[in-house]
Amino acid sequence: MSYFYLDAKEFERVVDAISKFSDGALAERIINDYLHTEGGRIIKENIQKILPVSGRTWNGKKTAASQTDPFTLKEENLAVIVKTKGPYHYLYFPDDGSNTQHHYGNQQFMFDGANASEDKIVNEVIDELVRRLEEI
Questions:
Q1: Which of 101, 97, 79 is nearest to 89 (CA)?
Q2: What is the residue range of 106's domain?
Q3: Residue 83 in contact with residue 92, Cβ under 8 Å?
């Protein structure tokens, strides 16, 4: 599972944009709409780009996670959680797991993919807030 957090500097930029709205609920709805659609997609793409590929092949082997859509989004208030679909729960082991003789663990690709998305998501959320503020 991947969690996306804003650092303090980015948080202040978003708060400044939100404070310009007279109705905080509207700003909240705009942010939720963005995170649950575009934001989640951006995070999924950035994680998928850095997924490890085992190179293993055998009859009946499922498609590698890097070549399919192994993630699902869980929508929460002012948040989106990216987690693996059932057949791809094994991604936990190379992401958070420890090293073994045959596996390289603790690669943190979920975390790195979410962090790589931060600037783009923050900038686009602020752009969307400003655009909607100008419409009012």
A1: 97
A2: 8-54+62-135
A3: no
Beta strand extents in the chain (DSSP E only): 71-76, 79-84
Token digits of residue 60:
């009946």
Residue 76 bridge partners (DSSP): 79
**What is the DSSP code string of 57-121?**
--TTPPPPGGGS--EEEEEETTEEEEEE-GGGGGGHHHHHSPP-SS------HHHHHHHHHHHHH
Residue-wise pLDDT tens digits, 3-53: 556 666 778 888 888 888 888 889 999 999 999 999 999 999 999 998 877
The conformation of residue 87, written as its DSSP 8-state character, comes to G
95 found inside a domain: yes
Give residue for tokens 């943190």: 108
Provide the whole-model pTM. 0.80
